[in-house]
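Final paragraph of the annual report: two paired records, presented back to back.
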Amino acid sequence: MFKVFALAAGAALLAFAPGAARAQAADDGMLCVYDSAAAEHYEAIAEAFLGGGDDDAMKSANAMLDKATQACSDQFKFSEDEADAARDLAIYGVAVDYLTEDLMFMDVSDEAIDGVFTVYSALSEDDLDMFYDATWRSDADFVARLKAGLLKAGFPDAADELGTAYDIFEISAMADDAMLSFTLAGDD
């Protein structure tokens, strides 16, 4: 498994968590559910959530996440909001790892995959907000800017690969919000 999400999460945490809250969140188990899910069940969880899995796959993925969330909640004494955010972060994290691994199977170079995260980290708040509009892919100017950034970073100009990179962008935006939610919940 290509565990890139944990590396990217650390960088995003530095960007979103202010001062002391940043240090506190890093030590309060924010990635605990993700670490557990990624270590044991990342493919099953990612496939269930990315592919809309059948009922049995979704039930199984939810049970795995529930177990990991409960264990982390017990260990770190999460509030309900922290537990929910950590669980969401696990889903998004394993999805990003899974899609990143897909890019590897598509023979996208490590440098081009790194470029996906470089392009993502350079997006503005307004750009990130675009991912919450279900029609963002129909915004030709926005998608053209994303594609131009990816191509400049050495990413292949191929529809499937670009589509996977766009999925990583969208899921990463949701993961950023889950990290912020976790941090803010810990400040309450």
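The closing record of the year follows.
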Amino acid sequence: MKHIKEHFKNLISLHFTKDSEIHLHEHVENFCLDISWKLINNPNHQNKKSKKLRIIISKERVEDYSYLDQEDKQLFDKKLSNYIKTKAISFDPNHDRPSSQAPPIETWHLIM
């Protein structure tokens, strides 16, 4: 399961900038990935981070993936990639919390 979670992390990471902070939660059953980055649109708060994006794929879906043949895994990967790409277009990383507070979290539950 760990190698599948790493695979999903690498696939999803392709849709975000290299300076994004990406954290895979290792000790949870579901696939859970947090992504954030520094916002560059506010010169008064140069260290302010974006909203945290949390992507969750159920434990069952991860397990199902492990039983797929190579062709179906590639199809799943393509669907996952398209899902992230589509959702990322409408994601607004900005928020009104001061940089001294934890940024809000927006959660995407993968249902495919």
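Strands lie at 21-24, 31-36, 52-57, 105-109. This concludes the annual technical report; the extension proposal builds directly on these records.
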